[in-house]
C-alpha cells in the first residue's frame, strides 16, 4: 500500500487512506510497521525502513489537508491513540528508531538528503505532537522527554524550520525548558512577528495581575479547599480555569497536568 499523500491528486483519496488506516486491518499494518522499526538493530536497516515506509506514513497523517479535515478528525485520533500504545511503548519504540534515522539523515552531506531531512523532521514532529496531545500520560513518561531532547540536540537547527512550532509545543507539554538551545549550542534567534489579537489569561491566586479573586484562590492547588468558602461564593470575578493553549499554563510537566485535572474536576463537581 502506498502511504504518501503527496503523490495523490485528489483529497478523496487521502480521506480513503486515513479511514482505511483507522480500521482493524489498517491498525494491524501500522503495528507491523512499528514492530519492524523496534526490531531493527542496525542503523542502516532502520534508515531504509524509515525512508521507505515510516516517512511516507508520517507525511500522510500530518498532511495539512488531512489535519484540517473535520471528517477525518476521529479516524486520525484513532490512529494516533493506537500509535501511543500500552503505556506509550509503541510510540517510544517507533520514535526512538525515528530519532536514529533522522540523525543519520541530518549528517548526510548531499543536498537532496538535507531537503528530505527537513521534510522528515517536520512530519515526525507533527505526528509526535499529536500523539502527546491526545495522550496526557506521555507527560509522566520520561522516555518522551528523552526523545524530544535527543531530537533537539542531534539535528541541526536549520533543519527544523516549519517543525519548530511543533517542537516548542512538545517541550511545553512535556515540561522541557523553553530556553533549551537547539543543536550547536546557540539559542534560537528572535524573529519579528505580525501583531495578533489575544485574550489575556488571568492566572490563579497571587499570579493574577489583579491579585487573588478570594480567600480560596491560590496558585498552588494544595492550598485550595475542596468546598468553596463564603468569600469564594460571593466573589464576582470569574474562576481561573486552565486554557487549552499549553503555552499559557502557569505550570509545566507533571505538576501542570495535576493542576489542570484538579481544577477542572473541582469545577465539574462543586463549581
What does this structure look like?
- The protein is 56% helix and 0% strand.
- The protein has eleven helices and no strands.
- It is mainly alpha-helical and 271 residues long.
- Helix 2 (24-39) crosses helix 6 and helix 5 (73-84) crosses helix 7.
- The chain has helices at 11-21, 24-39, 43-61, 64-67, 73-84, 89-106, 111-134, 142-154, 164-174, 230-234, 253-270.
- It folds into two domains: 5-174, no CATH class; 205-270, no CATH class.
Helix content percent band: 55-70%
Q: What string, H for helix and E for strand, traces the elements in order?
A: HHHHHHHHHHH
- Low-confidence parts, pLDDT < 50 over ≥5 residues? 1-8, 178-194
Broad structural category:
mainly alpha
Continuous helix count:
11
Radius of gyration: 21 Å
Please state the average pLDDT score. Answer: 81
The number of strands is: 0
Largest sheet: none
Shape: elongated
Task: Please report the distance between the alpha carbons of the first and last residues.
Answer: 51 Å
β-strand amount: under 5%
What is the assembly state of the chains in this entry?
single chain
> What count of structural domains?
2
